[in-house]
């Protein structure tokens, strides 16, 4: 087992390096740079050129890359031009928000997915199953950014149950009970919006898995031995059906990254997704490269986690 | 495989093919429908306006100051919405900020040492007053006695001088260091590290500062003197390079304004409390909360009273919300104009000046004039912007009422005149394809660069292209599409490498407080994208900032001549002037968006809770 994980990590390392080079080159190819948004007759072009020189933006790409990667290895991701602060600090601020948003989303995803998936799989082709599959089809078809806007409008503005923007109410003492409560309240609506859409994959997956397992020989054996229906479902079928879902967990993390970009923007929730989009638009390279690198590492780690879980579950797919 | 499963597989295959076909089809469809859609919607807009003339608005019907209704309560809280689809950067110091959102945040807790009047001239009403000597080069500033920082320390002359030292420092990380600073005696030596202090800046006593400039120009009085002080007692131990990221700038900034920063959530909200020791007098409100509001939800936030006022309102959402019952819309002319520019030369990187070139495609002034005659900008303003943008006439917008020449009609919409000019100049259709050739009889294709962004960008560009087609000019969108912001300015020449494929381009400028257009049309201005230069132009631009022009009447005359010169030579022609609209809840009193409004301490509300829309 450990051998497998170590071997898998060895593959991961060149992946990350290749990713970093690709990201850097692509960022370089984008037209404009952090200073090109400052086209303003009140700012002296010479001052802009001076800053370009100071920031090393006029150096060839491999020089810039070496500078960047040596910094990155020492934990220094450079300076954000736009925010005028170290990227590591900036990312740290935002990462905490996105982390909690993702945790909440994952929790809600599974809270919704597991009962729905079980009901739908156990009583397949009943009206309950049809309702649930109906919901999953709608979920597949609904774009997240429209759905999130509708949720915000209905629950945020019309009903007023949730705050409509930001990550915490202004003016609270950090660390106090009210502060934590307010944070929780602020991430609930974006998390629910995202979970309601992303959960449909898991529901469908679980449903077909249960239906599949139901017909396996060992279930027939269990029934033949006289096991009660609930025991058959809870002990035999559910256990076997949940394992692939657990393996799916790693990929779920990757999927969340795409989701946070939209949701954070709509809910004005300052997290990584929001930071990512804005940095691209404003060509704040040091932030773009850092964020993409983190996203990349998260996806690679997610895939790794999936692989590990899968290999635990199913010895046949261990990479030789 | 059995027969049944074969047929099932076949059926599945057919379905896949069907989907693929449908996908191809819908791709084609959507492209077509895009084209017809935009036409359709513009026609629809046209119909609507024909039905009701009320669909049009005029900036003249808006006030810059809020009408007060009812009696103000004592104290109270105000909620301010910062409309932005992103978090604000949080560089909360005048010397370091670069984005407009940060400026909105700073405005509540800090203010300039010098206030200005409606013509952007510095006055003596602010925290400091000034006297100029006879040479016009030496300014003496006196800071009023009761002006204090939020921590109780008095605002001193050395605090103001410190701003200059920080910006002039070689390690300074912002973009403010420019000609305003190099114009101070000894500044360049200080910047280069040759001097320990700036010889032109003298702290006379605790409250008196003297600054000596190299050149005296009227621009000094309209934003040419950096008006912001910086608390030296707080920043003196921080290295200049680290200031922008220090907690003194980002987490607990102080200023001298009517409100103090109480707490701050980075990038999303700030709460302010009343400054008990404000120099202008007793501050009315107890508390102000500022938070970021996404442009897509700003209407709901206003309707529910979640925010009382916002810093800016998307003008395209105004027609649908014009009758929102709980707010009053304030409006004024924006300090900006949209324009269409003609490439008349290139940028000489060595000499750092423009190099006009008579062989350029657009070099003939008659061609340019005909193109101006061919477009109906009033129709554009009415159809695309409900009258909230309108035909522009000269390159000094009416936001500068003193210098905008309202008498100058620019070049009017007259397609017949355009055709006549082209005929006379020799642009005739020789090969009979309906499009004019140039006087040499060669095919004339003009490449038009226009920026993407917003719903109207594409139909607007198409409208101009069609207008030119109607007078027989073949204008094509550069690469057949709109250009993204950064690409656009790269190709138009923000770094001096102009793309020769661009013949004409549509851009917009926001203009500064100072009316001097040298930064945009001067011979050595990189932002002079048309690459236009002429001796007459040089002469007028120089006269506009000469010592003689301290006399406003003389300066006016110079700039009227310059505006006329631009109408005659047409390196660019202005297309639209713009308006700014700001909704303010009915319970708010004494608010104004005028440029000479500095009375935040007077703000008041008439009720504890903001009324909601019905």
Automatic annotation (TrEMBL), chain A:
This is ABC transporter permease. Pfam families: BPD_transp_1 (PF00528), BPD_transp_1_N (PF19300). GO terms for cellular component: plasma membrane. Residues 95-306 form the ABC transmembrane type-1 domain. InterPro entries: BPD_transp_1_N (IPR045621), MetI-like (IPR000515), MetI-like_sf (IPR035906). Its main location: membrane. Belongs to the binding-protein-dependent transport system permease family. It comes from Oceanobacillus jordanicus.
Automatic annotation (TrEMBL), chain B:
Residues 129-521 form the Solute-binding protein family domain. The keyword Transport applies. One of its GO terms (biological process) is peptide transport. InterPro entries: Opp4A, Peptide/Ni-bd, SBP_5, SBP_5_dom. It comes from the Bacteria. The keyword Coiled coil does not apply. GO terms for cellular component: ATP-binding cassette (ABC) transporter complex; periplasmic space. Residues 28-53 are annotated as: Disordered. Keywords: Signal, Transport. Residues 1-22 form the signal peptide. GO terms for molecular function: peptide transmembrane transporter activity. Residues 31-53 have a biased composition (Basic and acidic residues). Belongs to the bacterial solute-binding protein 5 family. NCBIfam families: Opp4A. This is Oligopeptide ABC transporter substrate-binding protein. It comes from Oceanobacillus jordanicus.
